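Format notes (please read before filing issues)

Several people have asked whether sequences and C-alpha cells are stored in separate files. They are not. Every record keeps both together, in the order shown below: the sequence lines, then the C-alpha cell lines. Line labels are part of the format and must not be stripped during preprocessing.
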Amino acid sequence: MRSKWTLVTGASGFIGSTLVRRLVERGEKVKAFVRPGSDLTGLMGISPDRMQLAYGDVMVRDTVYRALAGCDRLYHVAAVFKFTSRRPGEIVQPTVDGTRAVFEAVSQRDVERIVVTSSVAALGVTKGDEPMNEEHPFRLTDPEVYIRAKSEQLAVVDEYVGRGLPIVTVMPASVFGPGDRRPTANGRALVEYLKLGPGRRLPVTDGGICVVDVDDVVEGHRLAMERGRTGERYILGGENLTYRQILSLLHELTGLAEPGGTPSPTVLRLVGWAMERFSDDEPLLTTRMVRDYAWGRMWVTSAKAERELGYTHRPARETLSRAIRWYLANGYVPRPLASRVRLELRPV
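Then the structure lines:
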C-alpha cells in the first residue's frame, strides 16, 4: 500500500472525477485539485480519509506547489474542453500556460511520475481509412482553438521531458460515458440527438471519430502511471466509426433519428457560419470544424498502449448505451422526449 498521495488536477471534470474515484477504489490516497467555486458533484460521497480537496489554479504555480506537498505522483488532467470560444484565451491559457506552470511547480518537488492528459485531436486528421498512431504529423493549418491548444501543449510536454521530468502522455479519443455532467462537446451532441424524435433522417458526412468509454480512458491513465515509459505518448482509443455508422448505431439503440443523405460542403459551411454567428459561446458546429472534420477522420490505433500497457477498450455500442442511460437517468432530456427512447434504455 502506498503511503504518499497522488494529485489529480482537473478533478471536478469528466475524466478527472472518474479518475479520482477509480484511484480511491484501488486504495490510493488522492488530492483532488479544483478551482474555487467548482461544481464538486462528481466527487460527492468519496471518503475524506482517501480524498482531500486542494483548491487552486493550474495557471498559478504556487497553488500547484502547495497541493503537491506529500505527493509522489501527478495526473495532470486539467483543461477546458471546448472546441471554440469567443474568448480563445479561456481554452489556450489553462491548457498551454497551465501545463507549463504545473511543470514548474513539479520541478520544485520530489515527484516520481507524471501522467499528462493530451488528446488525439493534437494529431490532426486522416483522410483515408488508415488510423493515426502517436507519430502522425500534425498538418492542420489555422485549426479550431481547442485543437491548437492541445497541439501547443505537446510542445510544452516535450520541452520538460527534455529537462528531465518523468512525464508520460496519454491521448484519449472521443470520450463518452456516465458522469459527463457539464456535458462536454461530445456529450452535448449526444444529448441534442436524444431530443430528436423518431422518423427523422439527418444529413451526415463521411468523416468519423474514434469512440471510447470514459472508464477505459481512466484505466488507461492508471496503466500509463504504472507501466508507461518516460517521454512516450500512448493513444487511448476505442472503436473507429464514421459519422454515418455512429448515427446508425444510435438509431438502433434508441429508435430515434436515422442517417439520411450527404449534405453539400457549401450548405454545411453555411450551417457552421450561422451557428458561429448566432449560437451561444460554444456552437456545436463551426466553419473550421466543417473544413477539417466533416470529411476528415480522427481515427486512431491504440496498438502501442495495448502492447506496452495492457490497455483494452469496450465496443462503441456499450459505450454509447452507458452514456445514453446516464443522460436519461439524470434529467438531461425532458421527460416527454425521453419517453420516446426505446424502453430498454429508459431509466427505471
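For reference, the curators noted about this record: DSSP finds twelve helices and 13 strands in the chain. The CA atoms of residues 103 and 160 lie 7 Å apart.
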